[in-house]
Amino acid sequence: MTAPPRPSLLGAQLPAFFCPLQRDLLHPQAKQVEERAVEWVDAFGLYPDPVERAWGLATRSADFSCRIIPDGDVEALLLFTEWNYWANAVDDWQDSGSEEVGAGAVVEHGVRLLRTIENPGASVLPEGPMTRSLVDLVVRTHATLSAFELRRFTEGTRDWLLGAAWRAARAEAGSMPGLNDFVAMGPLANGTRFSMTWSDVVRGARPPVELLYDPALTALTDAAQFIVSADNDLFSYDKDDHLEPKEINLVNVFAHQENCSPAEAVPLAVALRDRVMVLYIRLRARLAQGADAELRSCLRALDHYVAGCIAWQSRAPRYASPRNRYGLPVEEARFPVRFADAPSDAATEPPDLPALAAWWQWLRN
After folding, report:
1. Closest listed residue to residue 317, CA positions, set 301, 299, 338, 331
2. pLDDT digits (tens, 9 = 90+) for 73-98
3. DSSP secondary structure string, 120-153?
4. What pTM was computed for the model?
5. Residue 351 φ then ψ, to 5°
6. Which residues, at least 6 apart from 293, have a Cβ–Cβ distance to it below 8 Å?
């Protein structure tokens, strides 16, 4: 008789999510996108054996892509989806806990990856399926994106790799960061601007530079990045709870700061996440007043990103049947997600965290 999987350190169920945004949207071609993306994965032999393939597909990268971008060009969406399968394979390598995957290795790979994106013929990565599939992605990306979109994509990739390198360095040092440091740098690993660049490409949006880098919209984007990162730290917690030193995530940062258990830290993490969600809703409403079509498009894209990530993560066997508890992913594994009608912390003033507090100034400007 198989023993039941060990229980989550966070408790019997995840907390309710405060998310007063339109939910459960999905691109109408999602099934076809998934089928074609898996064909691409298999054509390049991205996974070395059936077990690794099963865990790679358990990321449900197509579902992620088609939920955060629920409309737009199918070919561009397919390319974004293939990028996500590839990036999740890298993420699994970074999170493997293997002795050979230290901070130095993560930085070394990250730099070589960035140079390959900028110059796919640079030949700075070792030969193999991961490199061949990457070069294919990069060549097609150069052919699809404008020069400015390619620069935005590269910057978004740099965010992801810097965030991952920072987390790896702190884990290697065995030191849990303080809360302000974590909220400033930890969420970069989610690659928000990587994804939002593709959202614009798929939807055919061409927001001008002045809008994309407007300080208030930048603050809103950073708030969305924090919310998605906090949600991911809840959904993915079980996947990494075996690692020593402990995974660098919002729950463990709070647990370390307050000298409490992960379960006791969850309400603290959710309260900060909800406080930022309140800021997001208020700032979004202010920006929407008198917004032109381009700004309204940017706001909708961020909404889809925040709400879509919850829907995707709740359905991904990568999180709901984690590898440290199951030999193979359980296809039907799901998190029973509950939604809260009100935030657990409805405070409207900024928190005592300089890395976040500056966002609130744009409510007054």
Report:
1. 331
2. 999 999 999 999 999 998 877 665 56
3. TT---S-SSHHHHHHHHHHHHHHHHS-HHHHHHH
4. 0.96
5. -75, 165
6. none
